[in-house]
Amino acid sequence: MQSPELLAKHIRDVHFGGNWTTSNLKDNLAGVSWQQATRQVYELNTIATLVFHINYYISAVLKVLQGEPLQAHDKYSFDLPPIQSQEDWEKLLNKTWADAEHFAALVEQLPEATLWEPFTDEKYGTYYRNLLGIIEHAHYHLGQIAVIKKVLSQID
Fold this sequence. Notes:
Number of helices: 6
Shape: globular
CATH topology: Four Helix Bundle (Hemerythrin (Met), subunit A)
């Protein structure tokens, strides 16, 4: 397997399963209602906000892989549109799953040499650094989601 294929596998694994930790977003979010997803626990971000945040960066880099300019700003990465129903929550989840699969498919097709090129601007480092960073970022917030879900089960 080439590096782009391995990175694509890791993107799919953190979203849909198959990674070494046996923890993934789809399984952790299965059965989470919109009320649970939007419930504030202590001063932590909500589960819905974390899902949006993870996908914010995937969506932005997905557009770059489609030939568009990078248009992402950290200050907007937590700006979750209101979730006021199960339908709103499911729309966010469906977008997350679709973007993750599309993202992985495009990463899989990258030429190996592209991984070592600057990502949109040299100040961001290489494609490899950014793609790996997105995977690490998803795992980091997946851990938060798992903990918040456990806390919610104890206080409900």
